Amino acid sequence: MTRTGTDELLVCIGGLNDRLRLRLMLLLDAFELSVGELAAAVQSPQSTVSRHLKRLVESGWIQRRSVGPQALYRRVMDGEQGRPSALWTIAAEFIASDADHGEDQRRARVIVAARQTDSHAFFDTLGSEWTSLRSSMFGDAISQAWLPAIASPTWRVADLGCGTGQIAATLASWVDHIDAVDREPSMLDAARARLADVPNVHLHHADLTDLPLPSDSFDLCILSLVLHHVECPEQVVEAAAKLLTQNGRLLIIDMVEHQRTEYRDTMGHLHLGFGSDVIQGWAESLGLSHYQYTLLSPDPSAQGPGLFAAVLSTPQGAG
């Protein structure tokens, strides 16, 4: 049976026909929030909030979006899905004067401020779970199965921002030596457990702009999904470039430019990906050559933005 315009209107009205749902709608008009955050803001059981969110989604007033393992909700904006904006405008005017609304908004602002996560706190909490989260975001697009194909048995490799040691574990049997560096103790703990029986990988706790490694000593430096977490990525690239031998290569894997601004709050991202012009600018300013920027094939199961691989190398004869 085809739904008429009147039927659509009644569905919309029915979706708003509850005091708590109106309070939730006002919050989602200003913020993008999870179920738990909404429950804390309106001081209602999470199960109750979940039930009302389900009704609001079904009636087309709000939409749900997955960000890694988390679900976030927001109001459907004017013009999206054909919701009658005039109806919401009227409802919002009435509920905005309610005393509960002011308290809801104040609590929501505190909640949002408290969830502002810097990269250090994010990784300190996540630790060994980073590998599974990264896989859920990027799928097999970041599989390191192809990495040994670009390496040589005599190479010395620097894995900068090594995380839990996944890349180092893959490359260890294909190269002579790997120095793996990370600034987060929890990541290094996970890497240490993974690499306990790998003798040619040496772990270092250091900031990526102050590397405890000798210059002109590495055939390959890798920055995989690192640069969007650091305040000044160009400084990290410069520090990595100083490590390269003559004809050494710097491999950067990261996210393409995107607009998922919530990653700044939920995962401590400081940069929303990088375009090829940015990478090329770094290469030119550092005197690196053989610049290449390649978009990696997306994984249909991945929930995160697309990835690129960029290769920069020192000019022949440089050292």
Biggest sheet: strands, sense, closure?
7 strands, mixed
Q: CATH class of the largest domain, please?
A: Alpha Beta
Mean pLDDT: 82
- The residue fraction in helices comes out at 40-55%
- Counting helices, strands and paired strands, the structural category is alpha/beta
Note the overall shape: elongated
What can you see in these coordinates?
By secondary structure, the protein is α/β, with parallel strands linked by helices. The protein has two domains: 5-114, Winged helix-like DNA-binding domain superfamily/Winged helix DNA-binding domain (Arc Repressor Mutant, subunit A); 119-313, Rossmann fold. It has helices at 5-16, 19-30, 35-42, 46-58, 85-95, 99-114, 119-126, 130-138, 166-171, 185-194, 233-243, 263-266, 276-286; strands at residues 62-67, 70-75, 156-160, 177-182, 201-205, 218-224, 244-255, 289-295, 307-313. Strands 5-4-3-6-7-9-8 form a seven-stranded mixed beta sheet, with helices on both faces. It has a two-stranded antiparallel sheet with strand order 1-2. The longest helix is centred in the middle third of the chain and has 16 residues, at 99-114. The protein is elongated, with a radius of gyration of 24 Å. It starts with a helix and ends in a 6-residue tail after the last strand.
